[in-house]
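Project standup — Tuesday

K.O.: blocked on the structure for the chain from last sprint. Re-posting the sequence here as requested.
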Amino acid sequence: MAKAADYMDDVKRYDAGAPEAIVQKIVNHLGVALLNKDSSLVSCSDQTEKDRVIASWCEKKLGLSGDTARLVDDVCEEMKADRNKQRVTFYYLVAKNAGCLNNL
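H.V.: unblocked you, prediction finished:
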C-alpha cells in the first residue's frame, strides 16, 4: 500500500509546510486508486474526471457544497505546469484551498 512519504516531495512543491499526517489521510482515502498509474493522476482536460473529484472528494469527503467546481478549476490552474498531476497532491490542494485540511 502507498505511503505518504511516496508523495511528500510532490506535495511540498506546492506547500512546503504540508503535514505528513494529512497527506497520509489522503493516501488512505485513495487506497487502491494509487496502485494504477492512470488513476493515480488527475486529468484537468477531462470533465468526467473533474466531476468525479467534485463528487467523491469535495462533496462526499470534505462535505462541501456550492461552487466546488471552482475549487477544482483553481487547482487545475495552480498545477497547470505539471503534465502529470498527482492525485494526492491535487486532493491536498483542493482541501487546503477550501480550508478543510483539519477536517480530514
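K.O.: great, moving the ticket to review. The longest strand covers residues 41-42. The chain is about 50% helix and 5% strand.
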